[in-house]
Write a structure and sequence with these properties.
This protein is an alpha/beta fold and 226 residues long. Helices cover 31% and strands 14% of the residues. The chain has eight helices and eight strands. The strands form two sheets. Strands 2-1-3-4-8-7 form a six-stranded mixed beta sheet, with helices on both faces. A two-stranded parallel sheet has the order 5-6.
Length: 226
Amino acid sequence: MKILIVCTNHDTYPTKSGKTGLWLSELTHFYDVMVKRRVLVDIISPNGGKIPIDERSLDLKDEVNLKYSDDNAFQLKITNSLLPSQIDAHDYRLIYFAGGHGAMWDLTENTELQDITRTIYENNGMVTAVCHGVCGLLHVKLSDGSLLIKDKYLTGFSNMEEALMSFVTEVPFYLEDKLKESGAHYTKSMIPFIEFIELDERLITGQNPNSARKVASKALEELFEK
């Protein structure tokens, strides 16, 4: 079985000097759960090539991050990520959008990724995302023209979490607001930054970085145990 992970290529903020990009644990924790079950993983990004990592997420006290900092196969995948045009969506049972603030700039409007997501979903595959990665689902349209997320229960990075991170002036939009505007039933945990996922048939979303592992575990359960 093969799955597809989508990461951002975008690494700058409009005014802040610090770099953004992928939030590392949102990739490593999901990846770790999958490879332990011998699932084959391909990683793509809008422009292919190297995936920038948000400097604030380079936490090597996190054992999973540390493990993959020395894993050659993993490092090769994130320095040579595939282009959307290099893959065939029919080969995959699941797509996962990892987050990090960078995702808001280059995953939200990417039509190639939207097409891949639609194909996987309509092929009875699973669509999963965590934190800011959920923005990649905002404009995915199904073959009948309806939005994938309309009337679906889902979660993603909350307005409260965005405010607590003090990046409100930098982000192009509030994800929670956009999801609601698109007709999704947005849910979240009462307490910011704790693990929280939402499952709606073949759509699984996680609220924040701490939810990535649980999204992966739930996805495996749905794929293998049903």
